[in-house]
Amino acid sequence: MSKFKTRHLNNSVKQGFIDDKHRAWHFAGIPTQTLIDEGKAYAGAVPLEVAERMLSYTPTLRKVYVEGDDGFPELVPDRMAVVLPHDDDPESGAHTFPERVSYVGTDGYAIHDPKLAVLDAPIALTDAGCELATVGKLGGGRMAFTSWRPIEGRVEIAGFTTLQAYINAGTSTDGSLATNIGSSYVEQVCDNTARLSESVGKLYRVKHTANSVIDINEARRIAEITIVGVHDLAASMERMANVAITEADFYAICNKIYPLPEEEGRSRTMVLNKLGELNRMYFGDARVPGSIRDTLLGAWQTLNTQATWGMEVRGNKVDPIGRQWERTIRGQTAQITVKDGKKSSSVSLDDQFWAVVGALDLAPALVGAK
What we know:
Residues 22-26, 189-201 and 311-321 have low confidence and may be disordered. The protein is globular. It is α+β, with helices and mostly antiparallel strands. Strands 1, 5, 6, 7, 8, 9, 10 and 11 form an 8-stranded antiparallel beta sheet that branches. Strands 2-3-4 form a 3-stranded antiparallel beta sheet. The chain contains 13 helices and 13 strands.
C-alpha cells in the first residue's frame, strides 16, 4: 500500500499533457485550468526547468550512532544513514530530523543523485524525440521519478482507443528500489487513462552500490524498444478484438480470476462487490466501448481498468492511486491479489488473464503466441 497521501501527491507531482489524463489523475474533479494556474499541471510537456528545481536536492550519507551502556553515543560500524534535506510539506514525511532519515544500510550503499538518475540520465530522450510528461518527488525525496512520451509512441486504434507509450525513470533513497529506466503503455479511453498490464518487458536497473554507474546511453536504447513495443501491442489488441466471446465466457473469466469463497464473510462480500463492479463496467461503462464488448479485448479492458483504477480515494487516507504511481516507478504491471489458503500474494493481472483464457480454451492461437 502506498505510503503517500493524496495531498502530498498533489503538491509533489507535476503533470504534463493534462487534457489527456485529468479524469484518471489523483486530483480528479479539479478544473484543468485551476491545475494549470496553480502550477501543478501543464497543457503540454513539463518544462525542464520545473523538473530541475524539483529534483535539485541532495541526500547525504551520515554515520550511525546508538546510545552506549554508559549513556554516550557509540558508533555503529559498517552502517550508514541516508538523510534527506528539510521539506516544508508536512505530508512529505521529511520535515523533522527523525523523519528525514530515509534509510539505514551498510556502508556499501551508494546514493544515486536524484537529478542525475531520473532527469540528466534520460535527458538524451529529448534528442530521441521524447517530451517530459511527469516529474515527481515523493516522501520528501524518498522516491523521485520522471515519465517521458516518445513523439512516435502514439498509436490510434480505429474505433476504439489511442495507445501512448511512456518511458519511466525512478530512483529511491530509502532502499525500496534500484535506479531504473523502463517502459509502460497508457490506453486513453473516453478521456480516461488506464495503465496497461502488457509491458515491453525491458527494464534497465542499477543497484545502489559503491561502484554502480548509470549508463546514460541506456535511455536511448529503451526509447527505441518502447516505440517498437507500442506498435506490437496495438497489433495484439486488434487480434483480441477479433476473438468473439459470449456473456457466459466473460462471467467465466471473471469467476476464475476472482473465485468466490464458499464461506459467508468479509472476503466473500468483497469478491461479490468486485464481480458486480466488473459486470457494471463491462456492460455500461464508457471505458469499455460497445465496439469491443463481446470480444476478448472487451474482457481484458474491463479487468485491467478495474484493477488499475477501481479503488476509491476517501478523504486523505492512504491513496491507491499513489500505489499505482509506485508500481509504475518500479516497472510493475497491473496487479491482483491471489489467495492460496490463508496466504495471499500480488501477481500480474496479465499473467492470470492469459492463464484463464488458456484454461477456458477461448483463444488457442493467441495463448500459444504468448
